[in-house]
Amino acid sequence: MSFSEKVFIDKSLKGLTTFVIPTQIKDVVTISGSLKGGEYHAKSYNSKIASLSGSMLDKGTLNKTKHEISETLESLGADISFVVSNHHINFTAHCLSKDLETVITLLSDLLQNPSYKDEELSVLKKRLIGNLKRSKEDTKKQASINFLSELYPENHPNARYSIDDTIKMVENVSSEDIKQFHQQAYGLGSFNVVAAGDVDPDKFNKLIIGELSNMQDQGINLKIDTPAPKESLQNEVRFNIIDKTSCDMFIGQTVNINEDHSEYYSLMMGIYILGGNFSARLMQTVRDKQGLTYGIGSGLAGCSYGVNGHWYTWGTFSPELLDEGFKATSDQIKSWYDNGVKAEELSSKKTTFTGSFQVGLDTTSGLVDRVLTNAEKGRELDFLDNYNELINDLDIKKINEAIKKYIKPENLTKSVAGSID
Hints:
The protein has 421 residues and is of the alpha+beta class. It has helices spanning 3-6, 48-55, 66-76, 100-112, 118-135, 139-151, 163-172, 175-185, 201-212, 264-275, 281-289, 322-339, 343-360, 364-376, 382-385, 387-392, 396-406; strands at 8-10, 16-22, 28-36, 79-84, 88-96, 191-197, 235-240, 247-254, 295-301, 310-317, 413-418.
């Protein structure tokens, strides 16, 4: 049965789309939803306002204290959680089908009526700042921040702030800032909700629409304005962190491509063959054969929601092996670029991709995540039906052409963090 046949879609409430998927799993319902309003949408004044707005949703509403919320969920054996990404405010919920009405009512209250108390915000900020200060010792995080800062201007969706700047941003957030952002961002307009399990579409839609029908419309700009990335030049950034037994290194560059581009999947597969999993080239050579690294890999990132992203290779090395590891990694990248991928590599990775896709649909959580992500990207359900065919149709000639077209080995940015002095 295709996705189009098993997913019930409802758009009767303007600004809200629901996707309900009845399955053979008994008594349990999984819900996942999102609306645009992530950190990027608050970036012009303080992106941490967005993330803190989501982190405080379960800290109490105008109708319930955080303890009452916790007790209600615990008594039902249910859970509701929130996370704010760069682009979206996301939520998930799990409950028994008999408790669906109670959980949806509570979810609606959390989304629409958060209390945003000063004392709760103060506690949350202290905890977050403590975590940020500890992350200054995280070599991979520091290398990644510096890498992205070299690739993108500050106002780009894929740009990242330094940890010190992020701490200052958190410190400057007030409860009034969060309330104003909530009033603008939390509303109908880009709202998608997916439910799967022992759930009746008509009952679910009646409940969710009844709870959200009085929700205001979103007042934020839902479009993404993407400035041009920085010019790709060969450069290197080093960040010293004392007393570290390993260094993290990122190598890469921006690519003028996103997920909607006709050549995206060819380039993505080519990069995956280079370093996407344990059987990819970099792991087989730099780690397994040469023994130079604890871990290494490549990927294509930051290419969602119409944004052109970047490709990268990451590796972690002991300080004394850093230069040798960089050379070995660069040699593999050059060989991959010069000679392209092999037929047996492509065949193996096609099996990996299609198998992983099918396994991800075997649980209600995996199922709702796939359908929600598909909806967030504005795709029709038949994209999911045709995904495995899309992968299996990838052509080795077009993959190697995409590598040549988008990868520029002579203009790679390198970022290293660790005990490197």
